[in-house]
Amino acid sequence: MNRHMLILLAVTWALFAASVTGYLVRTEESDPPARVFLENTGGRVVFAHAGHVADYGLECVECHHDDTGAEQPVPCGVCHPKAFDDSFRGGHFAAFSDRSHCLRCHASDPDVETPAERPDPEWIPVRTDAFHEQCLGCHESMGGPVGEDACDQCHAGM
Ligand code: HEC
Ligand code: HEC
Ligand code: HEC
Ligand code: HEC
Ligand code: HEC
């Protein structure tokens, strides 16, 4: 093997290693993830996050409710739990770093409002409904897997 071949090989390996590292490791916690793994009883969903932004030209706000380009958004499941049961009611305050998030659900300062003013979970969708509504709603208008036969395009093993 000549010298040029060796250099070429070294460069190829360096690029390969860098791309694998980039695929697996998030440089900063606040970086948008390349892909998101969503565990659930229907079978794991591998969501191509970066692909949806870069390849399909979507804006952050189309999924994140607000422009989260600069800030780390709160994971969807913090506001859309599996159920608005006692464990959500008792512990959810600890999940929000920013008081402005409280006002997304509470009409006023949640520490001074009366129980009667507390949000009605009926208008906040639970996790599965929120995801299905958002993913499938957009696919209906822009393309992407949709319909009764499409389950296994998102869920591994369905
Ligand atoms: C097609 C919908 C969609 C678009 C467009 C989108 N995101 Fe996301 N994003 C998601 C979903 C779904 C998650 C996973 C949330 C979860 O795990 O609960 C996520 C997760 C994230 C997370 C990690 C939050 C966490 O769970 O810790 C960050 C950061 C993020 N997105 C930033 C962005 C930014 C910045 C943009 C615009 C450049 C963007 N996203 C565009 C759907 C989207
Ligand atoms: C800070 C809390 C909060 C976070 C984080 C959040 N949501 Fe929501 N979401 C709400 C509330 C409150 C509603 C009730 C209706 C409204 O105010 O828009 C809602 C409504 C929805 C709806 C139904 C109404 C609509 O806009 O179509 C969908 C779908 C939805 N959320 C998906 C998501 C997804 C997916 C994520 C993560 C990318 C997410 N939400 C993150 C609070 C949140
Ligand atoms: C995703 C929507 C949502 C967000 C965001 C949210 N809450 Fe709540 N909160 C609720 C719901 C739903 C209840 C239960 C209402 C009920 O049934 O009494 C509740 C109840 C409460 C209660 C009463 C608890 C009890 O034991 O009766 C307090 C206090 C409270 N929230 C404070 C906060 C604070 C502080 C924040 C921000 C750090 C916050 N909430 C963010 C939805 C939310
Ligand atoms: C705002 C619009 C939008 C939202 C929201 C959205 N998608 Fe998509 N999705 C698209 C578009 C556009 C395509 C590409 C369709 C094509 O080219 O045929 C796509 C394609 C896909 C594909 C097939 C190709 C690929 O990239 O893997 C999967 C799987 C997928 N989306 C999963 C999801 C999941 C899971 C969610 C919810 C977490 C979601 N999408 C939310 C617009 C969206
Ligand atoms: C566009 C992608 C997509 C398609 C198509 C899709 N789902 Fe889902 N599904 C999701 C996402 C995303 C979640 C939320 C994962 C999570 O909770 O983290 C989910 C959650 C679920 C759950 C979990 C419920 C739980 O509480 O754990 C079930 C069951 C499910 N889907 C069934 C189906 C069935 C049946 C179909 C076909 C009729 C289908 N899904 C089609 C993306 C999809």
UniProtKB/TrEMBL annotation:
All copies of domain Class III cytochrome C, residue ranges: 40-109
Keyword Iron: yes
Keywords of this entry: Electron transport, Heme, Iron, Metal-binding, Transport
Gene Ontology MF terms: electron transfer activity; heme binding; metal ion binding
Record Gene3D superfamilies: Cytochrome C3
Keyword Protein biosynthesis among record annotations: no
Superkingdom assignment: Bacteria
Pfam families, per the entry: Cytochrom_CIII
InterPro entries xref list: Cyt_c_III_dom, Multihaem_cyt_sf
Protein name: Class III cytochrome C family protein
Source organism of the structure: Paucidesulfovibrio gracilis DSM 16080
